[in-house]
Write a structure and sequence with these properties.
- The structure holds two protein chains of two kinds.
- By secondary structure, chain A is mainly α.
- Chain A has a domain of about 80 residues: ACP-like (Non-ribosomal Peptide Synthetase Peptidyl Carrier Protein, Chain A).
- Chain A is about 40% helix and about 5% strand.
- Chain A is built from four helices and two strands.
- A two-stranded antiparallel sheet of chain A has the order 1-2.
- In chain A, helix 1 packs across helix 4.
- The longest helix of chain A is centred in the middle third of the chain and has 16 residues.
- The N terminus of chain A is likely disordered.
- By secondary structure, chain B is an alpha/beta fold.
- Chain B has 16 helices and 16 strands.
- Chain B has an eleven-stranded mixed beta sheet with strand order 5-4-6-8-1-9-16-15-10-11-13, sandwiched between helices. In chain B, strands 2-3-7 form a three-stranded mixed beta sheet. Chain B has a two-stranded antiparallel sheet with strand order 12-14.
- In chain B, helix 4 packs parallel to helix 7, helix 8 crosses helix 15 and helix 12 packs parallel to helix 13.
- Classes of the chains: A mainly alpha, B alpha/beta.
- Chains A and B meet through helix 2 of A and helix 5 of B.
Chain lengths: ~120, ~425
């Protein structure tokens, strides 16, 4: 049952660490970047992969930089809007509508986030 | 058009209801006398006069893919579940029908209320930029029809009648017309509703339309009984595949029943109150009989709309008696399913068809003490146990706020 309108707390920011990554073995490896508050390219790709899986059912392994959202991953325009909102939640990077139209591939999105965080 | 080509038959059935996640489990539970009604236990309901609901027996999110489900309002999810069952059972997907000759008519009474209200919460709490881009396609009342059309690849027209609690039945009538007019070769019809939420419940309660028998959930929906005090809100969907008899026979389809006729009228009396003698309802039943080329004597069974409201049930009893007589066996299956609003007419048509097919009339639960109303007293309302009967034709009637009346006549094949 949907609760009555209530002062629900805002959705918590994503708590996934921006300063460390987890290796395939599960070991935590320290980031080598100078500014520990910024996400690395790998972290962005992984985070974007999680968003794509949640919003559009894309298998994380398929979310590689060269993939086109519309042609390869079957992500429609409304889902792109959802993805933009999720990116803002996860990385604190807002994607203006005129920029969103230019983001064609996963790599485009990674670059945009990387250069605007 | 010759009579043979305009004969319309039912070749597929689907449903997800408070009694079961498909047609067979729903039918089995109905005949076993089980109730789908329970009491809401959430904190918000404490202030509500009516706290009962007939929830789905099977969650639609467990029946369809997660990513697909998150883009569909719950009313659309149940529509897709029921429609895909009916479509699969009909075997129509393998019949090589041109998609431009496949149509969908799927109604809803309320539409995507859960999305509308949920996104209003988002708007209030987080602002306009956080409102989902899927809000409009999820709340629009043609959403269930559109989702079903996409699911089965229908390109011959997708239509969404909206006539409150007559919507599901009206969809069946539209489907009949489309086939008779040769606008399609196969039509998937049905109705869907999923609006269990505080606002619709508060609204219906404010109309004094809902049962407040909160301490006895399974006994709350009691059509035609002296102690009835309103309906119980239910959720779910039902779907039927309709096609012309000749093409169904040509592809060797299993035929459940014939959809012999339909009638639609309006009360022209009041926005929500039924005409006290069910004048428009009776006129719809007579119109359906004429359309089917049958007389009242041919009809053996009526699956009544009978929502368990004080005024609605007596008006309908008059309509049934005045249009069909006193010989028909009457079932009020909302006594177990609750009131599925825009899905009710479709679900109860499925029940009417199964009654014909199985030659058994479902019982009306909770009819302990029939109303003193003369029309109610005159009817043979089946109670206690389902009754075996020799049935050739059955009527399903449905009425909606707004004065909409639909009657459908089904016969054995």
């Amino acid at each position: 049952m949907t609760p009555l309108r209530s002062a629900a707390p805002p959705r918590p920011r994503d708590t996934w660490s921006r300063t460390t990554t987890t290796s395939p073995s599960g070991a935590v490896v320290p980031s080598e970047r100078e500014d520990p508050t910024l996400a690395s390219t790998q972290e962005i790709q992984a985070g974007l992969g999680e968003i794509l899986e949640e919003v559009a059912g894309v298998t994380p392994a398929d979310a590689t930089p060269e993939k086109s959202f519309t042609d390869d991953l079957d992500v429609d325009s409304l889902s792109m809007v959802e993805i933009a909102t999720a990116v803002e939640d996860k990385f604190g990077v807002a994607i203006p509508d005129d920029q969103l139209a230019n983001i064609k591939t996963v790599g485009d999105a990674i670059s945009f986030i990387e250069s605007n965080q | 058009m010759s009579a043979s080509t305009s004969d319309v038959v039912v070749t597929g059935l689907g449903a997800t209801t408070p009694l079961g996640g498909d047609v067979s489990s729903t039918w089995e539970a109905l005949l076993a006398g089980r109730s789908g009604v329970s009491r809401i236990t959430d904190e918000w309901v404490k202030e509500f006069p009516a706290q009962l609901v007939a929830r789905l027996a099977a969650e639609p999110t467990e029946q369809i893919d997660r990513v697909r489900a998150r883009r569909l309002d719950r009313s659309q999810q149940v529509a897709v579940v029921a429609a895909e069952q009916a479509w699969a059972e009909s075997g129509a997907a393998d019949a090589g029908v041109d998609p431009e000759r496949i149509a969908v008519v799927f109604g809803t009474g309320i539409g995507g209320a859960l999305t509308l209200l949920g996104q209003d919460d988002v708007l209030e709490e987080k602002g306009p930029k956080r409102v989902s881009p899927f809000t409009i396609p999820m709340l629009m009342p043609n959403g269930p029809a559109a989702a079903v059309g996409l699911a089965i690849g229908a390109r011959g027209g997708v239509h969404a009648p909206v006539s409150a609690c007559a919507s599901g039945a009206e969809a069946i009538r539209w489907g009949l017309d489309l086939l008779r007019l040769d606008r399609a070769d196969i039509v998937l019809v049905g109705g869907a509703e999923a609006c269990v939420h505080p606002l619709p419940m508060a609204g219906f309660a404010a109309m004094r339309a809902m049962s407040t028998r909160n301490d006895e959930p399974e006994r709350a929906s009691r059509p035609f009984d002296k102690g009835r005090d309103g309906f119980v809100l239910g959720e779910g969907a039902a779907a039927l595949v309709l096609e012309r008899a000749d093409s169904a026979a040509a592809r060797g389809a299993r035929v459940h029943a014939r959809l012999a006729g339909a009638g639609a009228t309006a009360d022209g009396y009041d926005l929500v109150a039924p005409h006290p003698e069910g004048e428009g309802a009776g006129r719809a039943i007579r119109a359906a009989l004429r359309d089917a080329g049958l007389t009242a004597a041919d009809i053996g069974h009526v699956n009544a709309h009978a929502t368990s409201t004080p005024v609605g049930d007596t008006a309908e009893a008059s309509a049934i008696r005045n249009s069909l007589g006193e010989h028909v066996l009457v079932s009020a299956t909302k006594s177990q399913t609750g009131h599925l609003l825009g899905a009710a007419g479709a679900l109860e048509s499925v029940f009417a068809i199964l009654a014909l097919r199985e030659q058994i009339v479902p019982a009306t639960a909770n009819l302990d003490d029939p109303d003193d109303d003369a029309a109610v007293q005159s009817l043979d309302i089946v109670r206690d146990e389902p009754r075996k009967a020799d049935l050739r034709a059955a009527v399903n009637d449905s009425f909606g706020f707004g004065g909409h009346n639909i009657a459908l006549v089904f016969t054995t094949p």
